[in-house]
Specification:
Shape: globular
Order of helices and strands: HEEEHEEHE
Radius of gyration: 14 Å
Structural class: alpha+beta
Helix content: 25-40%
Strand content: 15-25%
C-alpha cells in the first residue's frame, strides 16, 4: 500500500507485470499518469534487461492510451526521483498551443483537482483505452 502522502498525489489505477499505473491528482494536463516500477530500484541502470524492456513496454502502452484518449500533440516523459527515490516515469500529455506547449511541463502552475467521480471516470476511460493495447502487446493488466 502507498503511504498517505503519496495517495495525496496519485490514485492507483492499474497493475501490470513490471509496474503500477497511477492517475496523477493534479490534472492540469488531462490524463497525466505515473508508471512506477514494482520492485524498488532508484536508477535505470539498476534494472535487468528483462525489467527494463518489460517496464518500458508498459510505459509505451500507457502513453499510447493517454495519447489516444486526450488526442495529445505530444506526450512528455519525465524521470526524476530526487525526492521520491523509486524508479518511476511521469507521462504528461500536452496539447499543441495548449498549456506549457513548447517547453517542459512544470508543477509551478496552480493545481487542478477533479471531483472523486471525475477521477473515477477518467481512470475508467484510460483503462478502456489501455486494455486493447495491452492485449495487442501481450501485456498483463489488472485494474486496481
Amino acid at each position: 500500500a502507498l503511504p498517505i502522502w503519496l495517495l495525496d498525489l496519485m490514485i492507483p489505477m492499474a497493475e501490470m507485470t513490471w509496474s503500477h499505473v497511477y492517475l496523477f491528482r493534479d490534472q492540469k494536463h488531462r490524463g497525466r499518469c505515473i508508471v512506477a516500477l514494482k520492485e524498488h530500484k532508484d536508477e535505470i541502470f539498476q534494472l535487468s534487461a528483462e525489467q527494463r524492456n518489460g517496464f518500458f513496454a508498459e510505459v509505451s502502452a500507457v502513453a499510447e492510451a493517454i495519447a489516444n484518449l486526450t488526442k495529445a500533440g505530444k506526450i512528455n516523459y519525465a524521470i526524476y526521483g530526487d525526492k521520491v527515490s523509486h524508479f518511476h516515469v511521469h507521462l504528461v500529455p500536452k496539447q499543441v498551443d495548449g498549456l506549457q506547449w513548447g517547453g517542459p511541463f512544470t508543477d509551478t502552475l496552480p493545481v487542478v483537482h477533479l471531483t472523486d467521480g471525475e477521477y473515477q471516470d477518467l481512470a475508467k476511460e484510460l483503462l478502456a483505452e489501455l486494455e486493447p493495447i495491452a492485449q495487442r502487446e501481450k501485456l498483463s493488466l489488472k485494474a486496481m
